[in-house]
Amino acid sequence: MFQNQKLMIEEIKNNIFRMDKMILLIVYALVTISTVFVYSATRQSGMVIKNILWIAVGSILVLLLSYMDYRNLKRYVWHIYGIGVTLLLLVRFAGKKTLGAQRWISLGPFQLQPAEFVKVGIIIIIAYWIVTKYKDGINNLQDIIGSILPAMPLILLVLIQPDLGTTLITVSAFLFMIFLYGADMKPIWIIGIVVLLSVYPVYRFVLSPYQRTRVETFLHPETDRKGSGWHVIQSKISVGAGGALGKGVLQGSQSRLEFLPEAQTDFIFSVLSEELGFLGSSLVLLLYLGLIYEIMRISRIIQDDFGRLLLYGMAAVIFMHVIVNVGMTIGLVPVTGKPLLFMSYGGSSFLASFIMIGIVESVKVHNK
């Protein structure tokens, strides 16, 4: 028995040794910055304590998942599928509605947002499906549709919450995965061109007046300063007020005076930009770039297609969250409520993000 324990301890040590230290360094740099700016945005020590608690739980998840061979996920794909459908149906019929969207399940004091975890499950399902059914490649539109078909019920359940942001991120991750897998993307480019050419006719002749008003408010938020344009206007003020070097940590006026809504979640990057300025916010974006680069670097040195597809998907999810969240804060994309991973306050987002890192580390550890 003592010998078995000794072997297990030795295996854990070897596992930790093989983990990608650069990924861990970047992730813990981001969550440390997050903790500082969650406090700056809220001035509530309770939120800081919760942030640290989620980091601790997430760290345990990373260790456990990295110890597990990621290839075992293939055995549990349909369990993951079933859990995902169950959670999303619970949201649909018993979820909590907030700010016009039904995305949360109340578990006592904790609000669970299943879509944050389901998007990780969708990446696993798509990766499994592609390596199982499309070993000879994805060669036409029929193959492209077929490779995402099993995940469509989950994606549609997320879409009708409504959660357009997560839907966009998930579909983009899928396209990223099949592109790097070597799929023939010509049908996607043709569809993309058709969609672009149809944007104005749809806007002009299909959308109802109130829908056109929403589009116009997104393009020109100053036309509804006290309504739907308020968030973006205040966020732009925060970002612009930071200048080159920022006002200093804890010195941001927009969040402190509560002009900036959801400062600790959706608009954490605005708080950071005001207090650290262009230089500080650029350094944070470089951390995300470094994280994505390191994940993609691992994908180039492993031989397993399933592992590579998982890495492509995780990198794409992180990339799209950065694009959507940062774009939202400066008015380049509509406000969708998507968090900045490892930065925005929120237990579901934090834990799902750490699960992704755990899977990435598992791929690294279990490919010699």
TrEMBL record:
It is found in: Membrane. Signal peptide: none annotated. InterPro entries: FtsW/RodA, RodA/MrdB. GO terms for biological process: cell division; regulation of cell shape. GO terms for molecular function: lipid-linked peptidoglycan transporter activity. PANTHER family: CELL CYCLE PROTEIN, PEPTIDOGLYCAN GLYCOSYLTRANSFERASE MRDB. This is Rod shape-determining protein RodA.
